[in-house]
Amino acid sequence: MDGSAETLYINVWDEDVGKDDHIGRCEVPLQALITSIGRTLSYTLFSKGEQSQPVLKTGELFMKCDSFVRAAAPAPVPFKPAAPVQAATPKAAAAGDAKSSAPAPAPAPVPVPVPGPVEEYTSGGSAPAAPAFPVGKLSILLVSGIDLKDTDLIGKLDPYVILKCGKQEVKSEVMTDAGCKPTFNLPFTLYVIGLLSVGLS
């Protein structure tokens, strides 16, 4: 899957009969998540903001980055160019020197860099600096929500969350009758290519 995007988009919906209702969304930079490993942060949700409607706050969502495992920058590989092939001298060619008619040796193959060791950051370690080769696996815990906009006239909200990063899209389970203060405690894994942003909608 392609994780090359600058933002993780998170959308919160209410499952309903016929058509689901959109509660709100927000966007979070991936760098902010990665550098706040182990801390539960609050993200404000907003309505879509149609042209005829103002953008309104529609609740809060709590999320934590559990870990970020990334490949280190490729280790440098020493390379020594092949020795140049010397052309045969006219004297050697006239003498019918067997070595002069031999085919030139093939150039040495160019070594291919191999990715270095994997570095892992968890809540027990320090936050990583911006990686030079930012490719890795991001583990997120969707914790809870509060003050979600009630879109149901009858009964309680059945909220669920969709996270999108690049071409990746993951959906949480529906929290039936959880209301405006749902508790999720659901883990998600995203594969990141490039340091970008993460958004909630």
> Looking at CATH, which topology would you report?
Immunoglobulin-like
* Oligomer state of the chains in this structure: single chain
Q: How many alpha or pi helices?
A: 2
Distance between the termini: 20 Å
Computed Rg: 28 Å
Output the CATH class name.
Mainly Beta
List low-pLDDT spans: 110-133, 195-201
Secondary structural class: mainly beta
Can you tell me the overall shape?
elongated
The CATH architecture classification is Sandwich
The major pleated sheet works out as:
5 strands, antiparallel
Strand content: 35-45%
Question: How many β strands by DSSP?
Answer: 10
**Whole-number mean pLDDT:** 74
* Element order: H for helix, E for strand: EEHEEHEEEEEE
